[in-house]
Design brief:
Strand content: under 5%
CATH topology of the largest domain: Rna Polymerase Sigma Factor, Chain: A
CATH architecture of the largest domain: Orthogonal Bundle
Largest sheet: none
CATH class of the largest domain: Mainly Alpha
Structural class: mainly alpha
Order of helices and strands: HHHHHHHHH
Oligomer: single chain
Helix content: 55-70%
Number of strands: 0
Length: 191
């Protein structure tokens, strides 16, 4: 009988459960979409979908993981739309080769942009897992449930994603004179 007469979800309950996770959702969406406007749209869609299905959310369960599951579902939907738009745009502007810009030289100090650029070079399947594990601090199990992947796949993607990220950051470290095997702290320990 409760199925037909369940109480309506209260806005206050939704806000209390879901809104504390907004900064984490936006940051992750921004890193994955690589565009602040698209990230804003994506997070707005996540909260809209979460509100529509909040009556199915079980109080006391992991709201953060639930919201991230919705985020990745919406992200895959957005990617299909972005890919379709990119194909149309490429077809409309085949002579944009004149707008290509050469890469900038290696900076003298590490910046957040350096890390974000290195992260952007990590293939998307690996980047998603790295972000959830290392930025959002999800457990392997939470990542597996959120992304609907086997636990072994999560572990493999995380390992491979971290390896690629290390390789990408090695160039930045090299610009500071840091190379593998030349760690002054380790050299002092073995002496």
């Amino acid at each position: 009988m409760d199925l037909f007469f369940s109480p309506k979800p209260r806005v206050e309950d939704f806000e209390a459960a879901a809104m504390p996770h907004f900064p984490d959702l936006y940051r992750t969406a921004r890193l994955l979409a690589q565009d602040s406007t698209e990230a804003e749209d994506l997070v707005q869609e996540v909260y809209l979908e979460a509100w529509k299905s909040f009556h199915r959310f079980q109080t006391g369960t992991n709201c953060r993981a639930w919201l991230f599951k919705i985020l990745f579902h919406r992200l895959h939907h957005f990617r299909r739309r972005w890919a379709k738009a990119a194909r149309v745009e490429a077809f409309e502007n085949p002579a944009d080769e004149a707008n290509l810009v050469a890469e900038t030289p290696v900076p003298q100090e590490i910046r957040d942009e350096d890390v974000l650029q290195a992260l952007a070079k990590v293939p998307l399947d690996f980047r998603e897992v790295v972000l959830l594990a290392d930025v959002q601090e999800f457990s392997y199990k939470e990542i597996a449930e959120t992304m609907k992947l086997p636990l072994g796949t999560v572990m493999s993607r995380l390992s491979r994603g971290r390896k690629i990220l290390r390789q990408e950051l090695a160039g930045v470290a090299g610009s500071f004179g840091i190379t593998p095997g030349k760690d002054p702290q380790r050299a002092g320990e073995s002496a």
